[in-house]
Amino acid sequence: MAKYLAQIIVMGVQVVGRAFARALQQEYAASQAAARARGAAGQQSAAASSITGMSLQEAQQILNVSTLTPEEIQKNYDHLFKVNDKSVGGSFYLQSKVVRAKERLDEELNIQTQQEKQKNPET
């Protein structure tokens, strides 16, 4: 009886081990495919984050934008820049964060337009 129980446990461990190994292989392949798809645009975005010292998500939170449209970015930037003007009792630090956030989002828009031009060279 113990012999059969041991065999069942060993077989179960082997099945689970193979399934786990297969899942790891699939996850690795998926992450490699995503990295290739992200390609140069992802590298440029990471470089822009390191240059400006601000991530894309942080910049979007500061300017309160969910989609990267130049009109929305400019509108929110103008409002926040005026509100945080030192002459009206605002904070120079916050105003500078608003400026850096706009710079970061503008850089991301430039990266996206370059990527679109590479995909559609005829336009």
Q: In words, what does this structure look like?
A:
- With 123 residues, the chain is mainly alpha-helical.
- The protein has a single domain, classed as DnaJ domain (Helix Hairpins), CATH 1.10.287.110.
- It is 82% helix and 0% strand.
- It is built from four helices and no strands.
- It is elongated and about 85 Å long.
Quick summary:
The chain has 123 residues and is mainly α. The protein has one domain (2-119): DnaJ domain (Helix Hairpins), CATH 1.10.287.110.
How are the secondary structure elements laid out?
Layout: H1 2-52, H2 56-63, H3 70-83, H4 92-119
What is the name of the CATH superfamily? DnaJ domain
Count structural domains: 1
Write down the CATH topology: Helix Hairpins
Fraction of residues in H or I helices: over 70%
Number of strands: 0
Proportion in β-strands? under 5%
Mind describing the biggest β-sheet? none
Mean pLDDT: 85
DSSP helical segment count: 4
CATH architecture: Orthogonal Bundle
What integer value in Å does the Rg equal? Answer: 25 Å
